[in-house]
Each structure stands twice: as C-alpha cells, then as structure tokens.
Write a structure and sequence with these properties.
The chain has one domain: Porin. It is 16% helix and 60% strand. Strands 1, 2, 3, 4, 5, 6, 7 and 8 form an eight-stranded antiparallel beta sheet that branches. The chain is flat and about 45 Å long. 12% of the residues are buried.
Length: 128
C-alpha cells in the first residue's frame, strides 16, 4: 500500500490535508482519495484519521472498473518519522482490515527513492 499526500498545519495542535492511496494484492488494485486529519496529542505524538473513497478498482481478472468503495484509517505517529495504523476498506466483494507500520514524510521519501535503486543495483550485480 502506498499513500502520497500533503498536510497543512492549521495551528500547533491540528493539521489537515489530502492524499492519494494506491493498494494492490494478488487479486486486485485499488485507487482512493482521502481527507487527512491530524491532532497532536503531545509535542511528539499525533493521532491521524483519514476517511476516503475508493474511486477505481480491478476485478480478479485485473479488468479496471470505476466502482466506488470506502476506506478509512486511524493511526499514531511519532514526530512524523514513523507510526502504526489500522485501515479498513469496504468494496463490493466485502470488507478487509489491515494493520501495519508506516514511514513519515522524509523517511518515506528517502525509502521510496532508495529501495528501487538498491533493487536495480542488486539485480545488475547478480551473476546468474
């Protein structure tokens, strides 16, 4: 699951924003738009909430369909470096619940750039 977005601090306790979420598994691909809300509980810990609408998904045969669905996540972040989350998705085939860890703004950007480069370097150095 990948999510890319931006948030604006409204004051020292609140931030709002939006994001685009892309998720895939063996059977399907989903694209969603989310509203993002952040409430700083302490100077270093924040509660994140993000309701959204799934706007595009594929079937088992990977045929694109403009079917609507719902998604929402709640999580705790530490200094926008990392966090934990729970995310629910409801689509025509049913509901699913995900749990995981996420990277914040800068660690996420660095990882998104570095991992593909390292992967290509490892593939290029493979002698088989």
């Amino acid at each position: 699951m990948w999510e890319l977005g931006h948030m604006y601090n409204r004051n020292e306790k609140r931030a709002i924003g939006a994001s685009l979420m892309m998720a895939a598994n063996d059977d399907a691909f989903r694209l969603a738009m989310k509203a993002r809300l952040r409430r700083w509980l302490t100077p270093t810990v924040a509660l994140d909430l993000a309701p959204g609408i799934i706007i595009l998904q594929t079937d088992y045969d990977l045929e694109m369909k403009a079917r609507l669905g719902l998604t929402a996540h709640a999580g705790l972040s530490v200094r926008d470096w990392f966090g934990v989350f729970a995310q629910a998705e409801y689509v025509k085939r049913g509901a699913v619940l995900h749990f995981g860890m996420r990277l914040g703004a800068w660690p996420g950007v660095v990882t998104a750039v570095a991992l593909p480069i390292l992967g290509f370097m490892a593939a290029a150095s493979d002698e088989s």
